[in-house]
């Protein structure tokens, strides 16, 4: 009997040790997530909950890196009570606040103590209050000086917050505590703002959407530095959790779909399969060294820090100096930080099913549509409408997407969005492949800027090409009515016919370069206008009536505006008084070189549009032109006749110079 009692006592001691081992000696975050639901009804769980309540500040947040299961003495408890009103170190870094809210939810599911419910709701209010108006979250709130104010994706801080808010907004069963409808509505708005911030901070590399940085400036949204060894860079780790969050959205918007697809393409492009991490451990199992060793067909990994322009991995010590390999930094940072991650592998694993669910082609099917799409009104192509073909093109493809348009009159308003780059609209013939619409200023009726909505074809996506097409606005003499609007960079239009009246061709875009070759362009007033740098070569410029050909709005400091080389200026018989141009904005630049000018061109050539200041700040010039309309001695005094030396500066290489060399010849 005595022996039996000893066995019972030993069993109870072992049980007690097991409970303590499970809940005292494990990490706090593991206790929250891995403990069985029944444990949250135990006396030990209630003891821990008292600690968690003590650590929560009145503002609703918690500090980070606290092992909240540890016993507290009376002095520690007293100190925590004193700290409650201070909001000292409240944060969402390293899972703080979000994990304590989960703990309170799991406690409330087992024990209906209203303090747990109130604690959870205070935490939720803290998250909502901490959000910036632009949708992002700082690392600490109230704001703490330094890099902590940046929008923080680092260590999944913002994603953790948004997962909490999403669960509440979706009224899911993940949390046992159900907030009021008012709070649910706040969470829905907060989540939408957060997604908008995520979309706006996705980094564009040479015009192509890629991934995210660990921190983004809270005002400009640009990539930002954090600690000395955490320089602005594309993150292989943090980006993965962001994409998984986007993929969790039911019925995602087109912008979300594009963001996911673009990030997946970047993950595919940047994965590393020729290295493996080798860890050297001491007798206590602690990492004493990390080495990257060459391997063949290794499991994919991604660098945590990649160059913003080249995607090259880099590594930093506490001196903030970039190194090319892990072995070039000291052991403290080398072994005390996660420099590589396999997190994007989960994104790539889930993407095919997600893509099918959300109407996105993957694999061989995507490759098929990337290369070539045919539009034919008789149903013999992939689509009968041009816009439907554009909807089917991938976002930010690496290669050109050709949309071949068979002969026909396509009466539709067409938009090529900025994410549909590298689109090539190729008509079967310029006379018989016609895109036409008849919007005009009065019909749009959206106020003073209605002109810009009147387009027949709007090009926003960079690296656009069009050839063998007629693009037409048929509204007639009803005010401003754009046929072709190009607000993209590196746009090339060849062998096309552009027809309209007032404002036929609008050219704009920040630092945009555009090239027109062998085209016929027709209109009345200001029928070539805008602020882009545009070169017209071997084009026919036809005036329907007496008015103005160009109305440039070249930005101050831009070296070139509109340049016409080897063009022929013609007109209808009734058009007898045509100006070469007038300044829409006072820094307008327009130059005609080696052009044949008909007698419709007025001797004075240029007009100041009642802007005397433009006579000093605009630049209107000609060189070596011919025809009855070329009367250099009679031009307005504030225009120029270029010298031969000056004219040599107007080469295609100089005018259309861009970071992508010779793009106009590709």
TrEMBL record:
InterPro entries: Pectate_lyase (IPR012669), Pectin_lyas_fold (IPR012334), Pectin_lyase_fold/virulence (IPR011050), Pectinesterase_Asp_AS (IPR033131), Pectinesterase_cat (IPR000070), Pectinesterase_Tyr_AS (IPR018040). Belongs to the pectinesterase family. Residues 373-657 form the Pectinesterase catalytic domain. This is Pectinesterase. The active site is at 526. Its EC number is 3.1.1.11. Pathway: Glycan metabolism; pectin degradation; 2-dehydro-3-deoxy-D-gluconate from pectin: step 1/5. It catalyses: [(1->4)-alpha-D-galacturonosyl methyl ester](n) + n H2O = [(1->4)-alpha-D-galacturonosyl](n) + n methanol + n H(+). It comes from the Bacteria.
């Amino acid at each position: 009997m005595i022996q039996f009692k000893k066995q019972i006592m030993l069993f109870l001691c072992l049980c007690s040790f097991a409970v303590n081992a499970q809940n005292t000696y494990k990490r706090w975050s593991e206790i929250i997530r891995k403990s069985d639901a029944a444990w949250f009804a135990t006396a030990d769980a209630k003891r821990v909950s008292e600690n968690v309540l003590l650590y929560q500040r009145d503002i609703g947040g918690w500090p980070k890196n606290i092992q909240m299961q540890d016993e507290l003495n009376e002095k520690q408890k007293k100190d925590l009570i004193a700290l409650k009103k201070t909001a000292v170190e409240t944060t969402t870094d390293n899972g703080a606040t979000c994990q304590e809210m989960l703990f309170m939810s799991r406690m409330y599911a087992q024990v209906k103590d209203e303090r747990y419910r109130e604690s959870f709701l205070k935490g939720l209010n803290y998250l909502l209050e901490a959000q910036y108006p632009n949708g992002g979250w700082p690392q600490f709130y109230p704001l703490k000086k330094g890099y902590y104010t940046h929008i923080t994706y680092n260590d999944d801080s913002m994603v953790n917050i948004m997962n909490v808010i999403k669960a509440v907004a979706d009224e899911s069963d993940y949390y046992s505590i159900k907030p009021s409808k008012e709070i649910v509505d706040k969470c829905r708005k907060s989540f939408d703002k957060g997604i908008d911030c995520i979309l706006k901070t996705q980094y564009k590399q040479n015009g192509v959407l890629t991934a995210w940085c660990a921190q983004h400036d809270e005002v400009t949204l640009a990539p930002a530095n954090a600690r000395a060894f955490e320089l602005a860079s594309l993150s292989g780790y943090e980006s993965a959790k962001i994409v998984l969050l986007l993929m969790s959205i039911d019925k995602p918007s087109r912008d979300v779909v594009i963001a996911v697809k673009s990030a997946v393409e970047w993950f595919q492009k940047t994965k590393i399969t020729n290295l493996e991490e080798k860890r050297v451990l001491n007798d206590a199992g602690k990492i004493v060294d990390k080495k990257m060793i060459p391997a063949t067909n290794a499991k994919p990994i991604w660098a945590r820090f990649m160059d913003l322009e080249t995607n090259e991995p880099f590594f930093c010590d506490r001196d903030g100096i970039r190194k090319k390999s892990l072995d070039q930094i000291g052991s403290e940072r080398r072994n005390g930080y996660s420099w590589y991650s396999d997190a994007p592998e989960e994104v790539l694993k889930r993407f095919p099913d997600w893509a099918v669910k959300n109407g996105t082609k993957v694999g061989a099917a995507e490759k098929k549509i990337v290369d070539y799409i045919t539009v034919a009104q008789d149903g013999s192509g992939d689509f009968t409408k041009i816009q439907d073909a554009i909807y089917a093109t991938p976002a930010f493809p690496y290669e050109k997407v050709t949309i071949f348009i068979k002969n026909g009159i396509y009466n539709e308003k067409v938009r090529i969005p900025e994410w549909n780059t590298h689109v090539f609209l190729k008509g079967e013939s310029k006379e018989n492949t016609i895109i036409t619409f008849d919007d005009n200023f009065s019909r749009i009726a959206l106020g003073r800027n209605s002109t810009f909505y009147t387009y027949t074809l709007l090009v926003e996506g960079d690296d656009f090409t069009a050839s063998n097409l007629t693009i037409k606005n048929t509204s007639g003499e009803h005010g401003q009515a754009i046929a072709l609007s190009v607000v993209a960079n590196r746009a090339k239009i060849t062998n096309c016919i552009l027809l309209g009246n007032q404002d036929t061709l609008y050219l704009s875009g920040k630092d945009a370069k555009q090239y027109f070759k062998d085209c016929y362009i027709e209109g009345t007033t200001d029928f070539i206008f805008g602020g882009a740098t545009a070169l017209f070569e071997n084009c026919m410029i036809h005036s329907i009536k007496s008015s103005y050909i160009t109305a440039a709005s070249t930005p101050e400091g831009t070296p070139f505006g509109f340049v016409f080389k080897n063009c022929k200026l013609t007109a209808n018989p009734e058009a007898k008084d045509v100006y070469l141009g007038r300044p829409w904005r006072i820094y307008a630049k327009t130059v005609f070189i080696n052009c044949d000018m008909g007698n419709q061109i007025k001797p004075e050539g240029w007009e100041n549009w009642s802007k005397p200041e433009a006579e000093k700040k605009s630049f209107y010039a000609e060189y070596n032109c011919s025809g009855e309309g070329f009367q250099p001695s009679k031009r307005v005094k504030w225009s120029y006749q270029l010298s031969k030396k000056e004219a040599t500066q107007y080469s295609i290489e100089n005018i259309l110079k861009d970071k992508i060399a010779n793009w106009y010849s590709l």
